[in-house]
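User: Quick one: structure for sequence A, then sequence B.

Assistant: Sequence A:
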Amino acid sequence: MVADKQNLNKQTACRDKPKNIVNGLDGQTGTGVIIRKAAELTGVKPVTLRAWERRYHLITPERNAKGHRLYSPAQIETIREICRWLERGVSIGKVKGLLSGSGKVTAPAQSNDTLAAADDLLQALADLNSRRAENIVNRICREYPPNIAIRQCFLPVIDALGQWKRQQGSVAAALLQFLLISRLSAMIRSENKSASIPCLAISLDPPGSLAAWLWLVSMAGQGLHITLLDGVEHISGLIDHARLQTYEHLAVFANRVPTKKQQQDIIKLSRLFDADHFHASTVIKTLCGAELKG
């Protein structure tokens, strides 16, 4: 988990795209882009865009004749501005004051501040209150882009649990793992419904690695239809596997040092894909370095 924290911190929650979004792009209509395209342009998932509209009234897109939301170029830029405030540690509930220029909200001087919900989640985990903890996890995942939710809530909570007494921390961490993996797997399945680019993801960690799931969900929403092979020990069988060529992308995760044999096999696998179609976690990149094609 610690090894990949720096990698997550470098990722931005909103992708910078050209501002001219209404010329020949898929998902375009005469007056704007539909919610799926807005999500692709900004990195903010449709469920989050809806929450920002319904609960916080941050954006009110027009509707077409069928009732579908249409986001204008100005609204796309507003979404990016919201993400920039979130990156600086402003909670979603306080962003509207900054967008309106009211001056009622003071942005924090430093970025990556922990969300206040992290303390609420820790308390729910300590109490073994699974329903409350689940509600908090679901709300954070709904109201924040994945990378912000991970970096400013879930990673700080995991770090805090690691400092608790072993007995108490172990029980709370087990509950968090159950809740997070349930939610993250649901998010990936949801993204897979509209994704068309096949991606095979391999985790070399023991089955149920929370670090692997957090890394994987950060890749979702990029048009990748993700298939996860969890807890793989021997990956050499994939090198000559006939079905491997049906996947356009390959992602390999490890949060601990792979064996020499695994490192050799990872390098061989990376050379079967174009450089920008092979994805590796920080540990793998550090160990294999320039030998990786991706």
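Sequence B:
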Amino acid sequence: MQVIEQTIKQKIFTIRGKQVMIDSDLAELYGVETKRLNEQVKRNINRFPKDFMFQLNEKELDGLRSQIVISSETSEEGQILRSQIATSKNMALKPQIKQYNEDFLRSQIATLNKGGRKYPTYAFTEQGVAMLSSVLRSQKAIDVNIQIIRAFIEMRKYISK
């Protein structure tokens, strides 16, 4: 299954001044459980220095919840408005993609509610995402990883303009 580029971009957030993706979003894209993704990272922790990944604190989780809630708001034309500066352009989405995004946002809000997760939430920088495919060791991880890296590159180009 081809991962939709726009969906990936909507899962890139700015935390601590860095463009990152959250472990649960990455696990969903890679088709694994978040717990399993984090287990693989822990088994290979020497590949993930602090500039590749970090654990979110409560304040950052609250900020992330705010970004997700804002990103679920729609304009008068029914277009999704995103909070990220790099993805702030309004764009009309196909109905099936829009529905997927709305379902995803609902699930992420539920996941991020206090008590909704038993484990810490980790954020992965572009370098951390690149390293993930080497520890997950599947063709899907490689294919998805290529698309994620391309999305990070496009976001960086957009921000620099």
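Residues 5-149 form one domain. Helices lie at 5-10, 23-30, 34-43, 58-71, 95-112, 126-136, 139-160.

User: Thanks, that's what I needed.
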